[in-house]
Each structure stands twice: as C-alpha cells, then as structure tokens.
TrEMBL record:
Keywords: Hydrolase, Magnesium, Manganese, Metal-binding. Residues 30-195 form the Nudix hydrolase domain. This is Coenzyme A pyrophosphatase. Belongs to the Nudix hydrolase family. GO terms for molecular function: coenzyme A diphosphatase activity; metal ion binding. It comes from the Bacteria. The keyword Lyase does not apply. Its cofactor is Mn(2+); Mg(2+). The keyword Magnesium applies. It holds the Pfam family NUDIX.
Length: 238
C-alpha cells in the first residue's frame, strides 16, 4: 500500500520531529555535513527503467539471490529522493546517497542541506519547507551528518548534476515499511550491528540506511529509537 502525499502526512512528520529530543554528536575530530531528506509525490510504475549503468558497476560484486543492484519497483505515492552517485567520484563512487555534502564556513546545517540539494539535483527549496531534523550520525570516514527533512510540495523535477549524480529516484515511503526491513548483520570488524535497508533490488547501508530507518521509525511511526550506534559496512569506512 502506498502512502498518500498530503498535508496530513506533512503535519504528522513535522509533529513527530518537533517532539523528539534530537541526538547531537559533538566531535571536533570530524567535519560536519548535512543531507536533505526530500519528501515528494510519485506515480506507480515511473521507475520501470533504471537509468544507471548498473551492469558495469556490479561486475564482480557479490550479490544475494534475487538482487541485481537496480532501483526498480519502488515508486508510488509519498516518496523521498534517492541519488546514485557517479562512478567518477574519488570517494563513495556509485553508491546510494541522499543529496548532501560538507558544511561551508558560515552556513547553518539547514542551509548546507538546501544548497547541496540545489547543486546536486537542481531543486531549489526555501527554509520554510524544512519539517525538522533527524539525529546526527557519525561516519567512519570522518563526518558528522545531520539529516534535514524537507517537504518538496509536489513531484518536483530533479536535474542531477552529471559531475556528482548519475540518477535520482523517487522511492515510495511505503518501501521503508517492507516486512523484510530493516535487516541487521554482524561483521568481525565491529561489535555494532550493520544495518541494511532493502530497497528495489539492492540493500542500502549506513549512513544512508540509518537515516532512512529513522525516517521510518520517527517520521512515520513516532518512535524515538536511536540509530547512531548502527554500523556501516567495511567498504564505506574510507
């Protein structure tokens, strides 16, 4: 069942965020960054063709049965924007990500998220569109990420920057409620569980996976469970 994109959903998410005591990470050894969790409308079936060159990227990558790395079958109703990073980037190339990046001097984290949203996917939204913030997440690669939840006000028309983003997908919020989501696995390198969010024919890991899990738990369900102790896979530690 898809989730209706309407004022009731907007107000529910805003109320849940406003009533949450946000977990803030203070670590002078890490740089600050922000991501935009942009909520938009979408139509069923508009993702039948995956525009990313998935076959090239997954060559030699171990895949679970039934998974092929494609973001298909995910659209419909209220959704969020999810980006596939280009393979030309020096770090985290070809990975799934929310629009975002490093905080510039003099910026608030909200300003950072909105600027990066504009630069990466060509969507300009005002500060009044912000519904609230999720918890900070400290990454293994040296950042503290602040997720900013933004109400897009409709379908929007993303124009991804070819230098950073190869494709932008509208992923229905109902996909976060799948019966097989979330998943947690153990790795020998850390005592913390690695979180996996099944979306389409792939698995989304932290930090993006942790942000999306809290979007479900807090934004949709009103649960204040922490996600900051969920681990990233080893390939995302650099």
């Amino acid at each position: 069942m898809t989730i209706t994109y309407d004022a009731a959903l907007r107000d529910r998410i805003r109320t849940h965020l406003a009533g949450h005591r946000r977990r803030v990470v203070t670590d002078d050894t890490k740089r600050h960054a922000a991501v935009a969790v942009v909520l938009v409308d979408s139509e069923l079936g508009e993702d039948r063709v995956d525009p990313a060159p998935v076959d090239d990227w997954i060559a030699g990558r171990p895949m679970e049965p039934g998974l092929d790395g494609r973001m298909v079958g995910v659209s419909g109703g209220a959704a969020f924007l999810l980006c596939r990073r280009t393979s030309r980037l020096s770090t985290h190339s070809a990975q799934w990500a929310l629009p975002g990046g490093r905080q510039d001097p003099g910026e608030t984290l909200i300003e950072t998220a909105l600027r990066e949203l504009h630069e990466e996917v060509g969507v300009a939204l005002p500060g009044s569109s912000v519904l609230g913030l999720l918890d900070d997440y400290a990454t293994r690669s040296g950042y503290v990420i602040t997720p900013v939840v933004v109400w897009g006000g409709g379908r929007l028309a993303p124009q991804p920057s070819p230098a950073e983003v190869v494709a932008v997908y509208r992923v229905g919020l109902h996909q976060l409620l799948r019966e097989d989501s979330p998943r947690f696995i153990e790795i020998p390198e850390s005592p913390r569980p690695v979180v996996q969010i099944p979306l389409g024919n792939d698995l989304i890991h932290a930090p993006t996976g942790a942000v999306l899990l809290q979007l479900r738990w807090l934004g949709l369900e009103g649960r204040s469970d922490p996600v900051d102790e969920l681990e990233q896979p080893v390939f995302a530690w650099k």
